[in-house]
Amino acid sequence: MEEQIVNRVSASNLVTFDLEELYTPGDRELVDIKDQLFQGLILKEKDFRDFIKTHDWSQYIGKHVAIVCSADAIIPTWAFMLLAVVLQPYAATVVFGSLDDLERHLFIEKLSTVDWQKFQSAKVVVKGCSKVEVPVSAYIEAVNHLRPIAASIMFGEACSTVPLFKDKK
User: Fold this and answer.
1) Are residues 111 and 148 in the same domain?
2) What is the DSSP string of 1-41?
3) 125 is in which domain, residue-wise?
4) What is the mean pLDDT of each run of 10 residues along the chain (169 residues)?
5) What predicted TM-score, i.e. pTM, was given to this entire model?
């Protein structure tokens, strides 16, 4: 008599939440104002406006763009706003900050569209491995939504999880 091997993972009632599925495809670009500073220190309005008029903004069509100034200079807020104004018709996304800030923004934006009620009273495994880098902030945001409604939250893979939360009800 042969014993049948049972896959307890596939037979469980675990629900997997995979943040990788929320990855926003597309090229990411960084626009750094430092390249427009006079002597690396000062933003001259006339020169900056000339740059705005002559730069080929079509190269950002459909891209996700982060605007930053990596130089240690005081940049007026209007300069970042002006860049956003000219980029907006071309870029899919425009944010202030680094490429990491851009990635966080894209994930938070997608997390806001999730129907969290489908995780009501569920045993949720937040998948840990992915082919794309998922910012830690996205995991925290997911837990913030799941904690009030899930029966339990685990991290990892269904076959090897780290328990994070279990409702005491």
Assistant:
1) yes
2) -PPPP--HHHHS-EEEE-GGGG---S-EEEEEGGGGSBTTT
3) 8-24+106-166
4) 53 85 97 94 95 97 98 94 98 98 97 96 92 94 96 90 89
5) 0.85
The reported pLDDT for the residue numbered 9 is 45
Pairing, β 152-157 against β 123-127: parallel
Structure tokens at 150: 């899930």
Amino acid at 43: L
168 CB neighbour count, 10 Å cutoff: 4
Q: From 60, 91, 122, give the residue that closes a domain.
A: 91
Handedness of CA 161, 162, 168, 169 (dihedral sign): negative
The identity of residue 39, as a single letter, is: Q
Q: Is residue 152 in some structural domain? A: yes
For 73, residues 6+ apart whose C-beta sits below 8 A from its C-beta are 34, 37, 40, 41, 42, 43
